[in-house]
């Protein structure tokens, strides 16, 4: 890593309002705790958490330009979906370009922290679930997700994605298909674990 942890924190926190930085600190805390509980690398979880929302407050046009300019590496199709999804893709890109993060596990955990993906890595799961349950989160149903997170990463994430999908359904908003596929894949993973145990 090109920057020290302190330098990274200073640079990333300067790009968002205090409230979002507080959320990021909560995600750092929860991601490290989940990594320790479930056997992921706590240092990688920490770096991915610090950077996960780095692009969240970037101007929409800037995010769109990055995705278009790097369409050989980034998913241009995202531009036809909710803008909320763009910051994950752009965040993963700038983590590498601007902050010298070269570890693909960290980059992927940032990239997939909003939607999940089919075949989520251990670190993907840790960061995505930490984003749902960090101590500052206070939305209807968060306690249920926290309870499930004690059972397993997969149970926690299924509860998290269920809450997102339910909310979108109730608001008659478009559901990003990958979130549904990620949820289904986690259920399949649990079934395989049950058979194996
Ligand atoms: Fe995010
Ligand atoms: Fe977040």
TrEMBL record:
Assigned EC number? 3.6.1.41
**Cell membrane recorded as keyword:** no
- Does Iron show up as a keyword for this record? yes
> Which InterPro entries does UniProt cross-reference here?
Diverse_Catalytic_Enzymes, HD/PDEase_dom, HD_domain, HDIG_dom, YqeK
Q: Which reaction does it catalyse?
A: P(1),P(4)-bis(5'-adenosyl) tetraphosphate + H2O = 2 ADP + 2 H(+)
- Uppermost EC category: hydrolase
Please list the GO terms describing molecular function: bis(5'-nucleosyl)-tetraphosphatase (symmetrical) activity; metal ion binding; nucleotide binding
Xref: NCBIfam families? bis(5'-nucleosyl)-tetraphosphatase (symmetrical) YqeK (TIGR00488), HDIG (TIGR00277)
Q: What is this protein called?
A: bis(5'-nucleosyl)-tetraphosphatase (symmetrical)
The major lineage groups are:
Bacteria, Bacillati, Bacillota, Bacilli, Bacillales
